[in-house]
Prior knowledge:
Blueprint: E1 27-32, E2 38-42, H1 46-49, E3 55-59, E4 61-63, E5 67-72, E6 77-87, E7 90-96, E8 106-109, E9 114-121, E10 124-128, H2 134-141, H3 158-161, E11 169-172, H4 184-193, E12 196-202, E13 225-229, H5 231-242, E14 247-250, H6 252-261, E15 270-274, E16 289-293, H7 300-309, H8 311-323, E17 334-338
Parallel strand pairs: 1-17, 3-12, 3-14, 4-11, 14-16
Antiparallel strand pairs: 1-2, 5-6, 5-8, 6-7, 7-10, 8-9, 9-10, 12-13, 13-15, 16-17
Amino acid sequence: xxxxxxxFDLPESLIAKAPTEERRGSRLLCLDGGTGELAxxxxxxxxxxxxxxxxxxxxxxxVIPARLFARKASGGRLEILIERVLDEHRALAHIxxxxxxxxxxxxxxxxDTVLKMVGRHDALFELEFPQEGALQVLERxxxxxxxxxxxxxxxDSDKERYQTVYSRNAGAVAAPTAGLHFDDEMIExxxxxxxxxxxxxxxVGAGTFQPVRVDDIxxxxxxxxxxxxxxxxxxxxxxxxARGGRVIAVGTTSVRALxxxxxxxxxxxxxxxxxxxxxxxxxxxxxxxxxxxxxxxESTLLMLVSAFAGYRNTMNAYAAAVxxxxxxxxxxxxxxIERNDAVDPAEVGRR
Length: 351
């Protein structure tokens, strides 16, 4: 398949620049991947759509305030976006400036805290933080890394709303946005109904917004992300399958974590990195239903959804979402998708 197959026309007015007043206040487009049938609901209706015995798998990564504003010792301005914290005092980052800093040079943050540029790793810069520690400096001076399509400065409210209520493992530079719709009361109500919950960790990187630049999608190189799928999660999935429940992934990051951990054909505890690329033709091993937001045209996330629901069903659903003026992207509306198990031979592929 070609990148252009995943293009759709999206009016700028449909890009959500701010969250709804209440987390569960968004709309929910339900797509049956088997039939292509659509239903227009509210996200709060999820309480009716999840059954006792189902298992919801959330990504509990926590977004770090990864954007820093700085200057060189010579005075030139810099903007830093942390991609990954390597350890207590080192991080990899994207740096935007008129001239790239050289290895060994010093970078001064807004309060004159000094970082050192240690070296280059392809497009990323390795930065050394002071004794205080990288996460501590980010908490003190960093800004929430809102996606590039939210073209405004971050606000105090973003510190709470661009974060899931169950986030606990710091390390992401983008939110697992499907989870932004859940509040504590809704999660508790789902448990009270008889649904189970489990938590994986996948630290979302800035590469999630990286465009696919090649025409042949099979040659696209994915960025790597750190994941952790525990033994407890594997046991919860096995118990759900045994009782006839459905595994519901909350977000494409939960899908990528679970399917990475099942790459051998069996779901196993997995810690490390993943660069799994899921596109039409992929046969899912774990996930039965998917809760997700609406994604960018020609993005790897749209390709994943197309693999899950079927390419034609997905593109038809997106056309309906545009027609019905759903809100798109991180602060936008959501979809609930039933998996399509029919594999189109013309769409086969996985890397």
